[in-house]
């Protein structure tokens, strides 16, 4: 049904499925999918957050984490812009099967990669490839506010024709002076002159694009090698790295949670995990994760990144002690409340999980 419906004055939760409303080819191997709530509920999230989708691929369900590319200032729909790699399974399924009317399960929203968590007067958004999606969400949110932002928006792509959201961003920049776009490409498109930056992100480009970078809050998203290059460039120029924020599902951030020395798992030590709701108990080694142990016992736990970043596999620990080294996918408040991330938590002795 394509007729517009009146939004319901309630907010969507992940207890309800998402329904695909439309899809759009952005650039090669990149598509944007627009979702609505079947009940007409509105969407509330922080710009830059992500959802974990439950995708029914052949061979079994997989969970994949994608950043929301739309803004909560436009709450009647929600979009995710995804890029298919040669070995993609979940994303390729979306390309081939996700069409208007199809409903899928989603978990979230989640994540703390948002300017709402780190408010500032001036921002520097640096991204590569599909890492542009959280930057698009945050920029759209500030644009929709009607107030003049101060954003230097840097995006790196292989060619100009592969810059995602280029036309939409240039439209916003043409109507608001505080959005300063900088494109960097590795090479021009054939027979299409290119007068912008060319090459790879470096300190010289940074100084030319944002001379006042020391005054800006930096958000970075892209492949891990790219983000490492950005970190190195900023650190080498004396930037305060406490004001640097990054998001990635392709590699771990530089630091993980500090873990006390007295709860380090031992290779030859046995452990036991009890799943209270299921009535199952599984024996394992202390070096096995709660996620692996649950799966071996036939207890499914949704998971995404498997590196402690996305937070999809959060479960409640009722008793016992675990060794958890995460990468930002869980808050201190959740930890204090007894929650853990199953993908990066290892049981020390006997542990009881609410599953």
TrEMBL record:
Q: In this protein, which residues make up the domain named FAD-binding FR-type?
A: 5-116
Recorded GO terms, molecular function? Answer: 2 iron, 2 sulfur cluster binding; metal ion binding; oxidoreductase activity
Tell me the keywords, alphabetical order. Answer: 2Fe-2S, FAD, Flavoprotein, Iron, Iron-sulfur, Metal-binding, Oxidoreductase
Per its UniProt record, what InterPro entries does this chain match? 2Fe-2S_ferredoxin-like_sf, 2Fe-2S_ferredoxin-type, 2Fe2S_fd_BS, Beta-grasp_dom_sf, Cbr1-like_FAD-bd_dom, FAD-bd_FR_type, FNR_nucleotide-bd, MRET
Cofactors needed by this protein, per the record, are: FAD
Span-the-membrane segments of this chain are none
Classification via PROSITE patterns: 2FE2S_FER_1, 2FE2S_FER_2, FAD_FR
- The 2Fe-2S ferredoxin-type domain is annotated at 271-355
Say which family it is in: In the N-terminal section; belongs to the FAD-binding oxidoreductase type 6 family.
Know the name of this protein? Ferredoxin-NADP reductase
Q: Which organism is it from?
A: Paracoccus laeviglucosivorans
